[in-house]
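Bit of a strange request maybe. I'm writing a small parser for structure token strings and I need a real example to test against, not something I typed by hand. Could someone generate the tokens for this chain?
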Amino acid sequence: MIHILLLLASSILWQENFTESTPPIAQLYDYHVDIEHRDGTVRLTANPQFEGFASAWLHVDAEITLREDDAIAMRVRGNDVTVRVRYFFRKGKCSSYYAGEKIVVAGAQWKDMVIPLEGAMFFPGTEFPAALTPGKSPVLYLFIENGESGNFDIEIGHIAIVRHDTQAEE
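Reply from user aminoacidic:
Good idea to test on real output. This should exercise your parser:
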């Protein structure tokens, strides 16, 4: 009788722990988002009155090749606020982007969320999101927004891109 054991190994392809003095997050266009660096976290706050939403973003310019079975891992907490995470990534050596989103409620306790890239759809846009980083071709754009209009207050502990590899052993 042959026994097969499946091993699931995860590797971190990229990670931001927010330990630098200037986090790599910026507000999107005219949305007003206060970005406060704390030791090992970043806090995003906004009180949008006219546009109804707040949006902050970052990009990953690392030399990595993403696959659709990779995932974005984040640690968030907030004041029972609905958070929408939108992402645009280049799959493999493709120059086009694929887009997806996940909505989660961030409560007072830290919540670890994993966003698989496998549900992303081809994004036909030629200017957005690439216009945010002229002359660059990031592998990933990540937008963190309030999922409902009104006050927005969340804290992010880390963001990572992870790859789960399954190996079979006899």
